[in-house]
Amino acid sequence: MPTTLADPLDAALLGEATQVHTRSIDRFARAHDASHYLLIPDAVLSPADAEGVARAFTAVRAAGRTMTFRSGGTSLSGQSVSGDILVDTRSHFRDIAVENGGASVRVGPGATVRQVNTRLIRHGRKLGPDPASEIACTIGGVVANNSSGMACGITENSYQTIESMLIVLPSGTILDTAHPEANAVLRTAEPELADGLLALRARLLADEEHVAFLRQQFSMKNTMGYGLNALLDFDDPVRIVEHLIIGSEGTLAFVAEARFRTIEVRPSIATGLLVFETLSDAMGALPALTGLGLATIELLDAASLRVAQGLSDVPVTIAEIEVVDHAALLVEVHARNEDSLADARAIAQAHFDALPLAVAPRLTTDAAERAALWHVRKGLYTAVAGARPSGTTALLEDIVVPVDRLLVTCERLIELFTEHGYEGSVIFGHAKDGNVHFLLNERFDDPESVARYRRFTDDLVELVLGQHGSLKAEHGTGRIMAPFVRRQYGDALTDMMWEIKRLFDPGLILNPGVVLSDDPDSYLKDLKRVPTVESEVDRCVECGYCEPTCPSKSITLTPRQRIVIRRDMAWAEEQGDTELLAELRSDYDYEGVQTCAVDGMCGVACPVDINTGDLVRRLRAEESSKLEDAVWDAAAKGWGAVTRVGGTALTFAAAMPAPLVQGVTQLGRAVLGADTVPLYDGGLPRGGTKAPAAQNPADARAVFFGACIGTMFGAEGHGEGSRDAVRALLDRAGIAVVIPEDTGGMCCGTPWKSKGHLAGYDRMTQRVLSSLWAASRHGELPVVCDAASCTEGLHTMLAKSVAEYPEYAALVIEDATTYIAREVLPRVTVSAKLGSVAVHPTCSTTALGATGALTEIAAAVASDVFVPDGWGCCAFAGDRGMLHPELTASATEVESAEVRAAEADRGGFDAFVSANRTCEIGMTRATGQPYRHVVEVLEELTRG
To answer: What is d(CA 871, CA 894) in angstroms, rounded to the nearest whole number?
Structure first.
């Protein structure tokens, strides 16, 4: 495969605003989605607006090429891959505008469902579609697939809640369907489309048999083929166009903006698990349960329950069952308030008590118990996909049948698993909709395995269609079911779909092979290879859940992309493609290794618990020289002196002209490399203060571990810094603390671990944990640290050591925010609250579960607490922000813009706070505002 390509499209037609990516690393990184298909595009376009997409249509058509839209890449059916021109719609198109008090929302296709709902929740509203991939799936995909989820069914999906769209047709016509003259615009610009759709509607209405069949098919969730129900439901050409585009998977037009009617959030919730002796008993109870109006009814078959019993936090109701033929229904009651919930809960409980259950039913409102129950449901994918053999692909499939056919369908599906040798497959899903999912692990690099998959698919199609179901309920037709559209709908209706395709897209330039295909074997082509690469990431299913939280997503690669490029390099090596391999390796050093913040946020989001930072740290360790390792090992031996020298250097630099110091560091970076020498700028603080002296009072109630960054980096402005602030607050609350010996020579180990210098990390680990073990009186006292990232580093250090030193498991390490919120706030008095404060949560407060404590302290010091909806990791990551300031600038762009807008709305904030000094530096650099540790502000406002 060539690693450099001639420009595939006319740049003049595309326009200057559209970025064109042709490097191999860009094309391969964006080629992978969550499906089991893989095509490598010749080029990737990133248009900035609707006009840019219209120009792209023109350029593609002129070049005789085809194009495919790709946004979040969470689709499972192969609808967002292309071997020609791929159009990235996530880099731009991210605008979100809440209107009418939250009753409506206008959204670009690049915004995720979670981002939209985060902005709506303050109005007590949410989007109707509720896909499980809401953390990563974008509005473009939700509309294109007519996605649904656990609760929305067919009454609150995109088809039902769309108000209007801004669309770009393949001809280049841009149509705002909310415009009062939209029909006139459509008829003028696209007369053949408008007239053709009305003619198809008339023809369809004249055939009662087809009308009845479509009514039955779309009485269920159904994303198979085009939504011909739009021809039945609307007589207005613009409305027909809108609703045909919904679920068309990017084969008819581009949606540049979608406007939705939102749904009321019912915040009072009770959850329960109904365990039945048999699947038949569960299905027998389903109609009456649906009649209760339960928000969710999720099925777990016997295999699912067996998998769930292996989860670490499995609820007792499942753990104690000896699973034979059992099945369970996870149910929820939603209500507007607690009184309404109590009434609905009583009605539901009375019904549950009369059911033939294996375990006594109970609805709970306890957050921890509810989370444990949902972890059973959501943990199935993790358990099955994460444990699959290396080199296999996890297939998450979905089907739908009428609810009264669900029992026989599930029973036969279980038989098919056995007949075709798919071990460990589980069935779960949205029982009240007749929509179930199942998981298969398959190899696509083995012809016999592909043949088995073909035989299974043939049997599955026969089963579902024999039960009057649909082969796709939620995940879209894609490539996987395109050859079977004709089997499901028959010749006449399938031919009508082809007519619709040609009316919208006469040149057939949009997403060929998706939704419709005349090749009966197309679903077996372009199957994804999954070569074994590294143990840290082999279980990756390429779902993309990690991407929205990644700080480098807009500048280099995301965690998924870091993993797939490793796979692509392994594949290139297998194929002997040395040119491609060399190019990918050359670009990967900066794109994949140097600009990874190793912040761990990807691990928080990953459904199979992959922290891509673990891979990057190992790669850095492999790349580091013996000299570097020796230097960092020596630093570990004398860390106290190193931090003092670093702090002194910053104080000296602060007294010098910033351009002079910056010039010196730029020279050093040019000689030794940008990933070795930090770049100084005038925004860096002076050096910090000396580490606190050791003390060991008999009445101590905690151990204080002052982070060494307090010595390296001074406080913002004339503040005292978090170390001194924490000690002052503890004294004020009457809490005596132990301070270990040589606390200035100790560190959480992150500088060594993040850079891959393992000898120094091991040395520091032994020193720190043995010291904390003694200082805590063998685990009797909790250890409190004043910097969230250092607290997380100590947690990591401890977790890696308990196997060798099991006694250390008794150590309790806590961030200062959580300890002070619990132990100090009740014992101090804030003299006068500030008016408003802007809060930057950090990746570490998220990982530690300490963000709530951070905002609680902020609420104690200010009347108005503002947390940006778009906050994320600042990517300062120790020294990463000084080595690669462009990374921090990109990572903080969205949040800093939101802070500036909120500041303008309020006429300014009285304080800007966070929970970690380097993050504060990063945010100060990004916003120009003085970010400080929240405990510093609390300490100042509680002085006598």
So the answer is: 7
Token output for 562: 């870091």
Sequence-distant (6+) residues with CB within 8 A of 187 are 194, 237
Q: Which helix (H) or strand (E) holds 583?
A: helix 578-588
CA–CA dist 80, 70 (Å, integer): 5
Cα separations in angstroms, 944 against 206, 395, 726, 827: 85, 63, 16, 13
Rounded to whole angstroms, how far apart are CA atoms 754 and 594?
11
Mean pLDDT along residues 712-721: 82
Identify which of 787, 698, 683, 719 has the alpha carbon closest to the alpha carbon of residue 932. 719
N- to C-terminal Cα separation, the chain = 72
Q: Convert the pLDDT of each residue in 342-360 to its tens digit.
A: 999 999 999 999 999 999 9
Answer whether 895's CB lies under 8 Å from 871's CB: yes
pTM of the full predicted structure? Answer: 0.90
- Look-up of token digits 């990109």: 890
- pLDDT value of position 454: 97
Q: Cα torsion for 337, 434, 541, 148, to the nearest 10°?
A: -50
Residue 473 phi/psi, 5° resolution?
-105, -45
The DSSP symbol for 559 reads H
Buried b (16+ CB within 10 A) or exposed e, 869-885: bbbbbbbbbbebbbbbb
Contact between 202 and 224 (Cβ < 8 Å): no
d(C-alpha 614, C-alpha 453), whole Å? 34
E-strand spans in 89-245?
96-99, 104-107, 125-126, 162-168, 174-176
3-state secondary structure 110-155: CCEHHHHHHHHHHHCEECCCCCCCCCCCEHHHHHHHCCCCCCCCCC
In 3D, which of 190, 194, 207, 179 has the Cα closest to residue 235? Answer: 194
Position 811, amino acid: L
What pLDDT is attached to residue 662? Answer: 45
Instruction: Give SS3 for 299.
Output: strand
DSSP, collapsed to helix, strand or coil, labels residue 83 as: coil
Could you report the per-residue pLDDT of 392-421, keeping only the tens digit for each? 888 999 999 999 999 999 999 999 999 999
Q: Which range (96-100, 674-678, 754-758) has the least confidence? A: 674-678
Q: Are 689 and 723 in contact (CB under 8 A)?
A: yes
Sheet holding 931-933, edge to edge: 862-866, 834-839, 911-914, 931-933
The SS3 call for residue 68 is strand
Sign of the C-alpha dihedral computed for residues 500, 506, 507 and 509 taken in this order = negative
Q: What would the two tokens of residue 845 be?
A: 């407060």
pLDDT grade for 660, boundaries at 50, 70 and 90: very low
User: Across-strand partners of 69?
Assistant: 87
261-296 per-position pLDDT tens digit: 999 999 999 999 999 999 999 999 999 999 999 999
Task: Give the model confidence (pLDDT) of 799-856 as tens digits.
Answer: 999 989 999 999 999 999 999 999 999 999 998 999 999 999 999 999 999 999 999 9
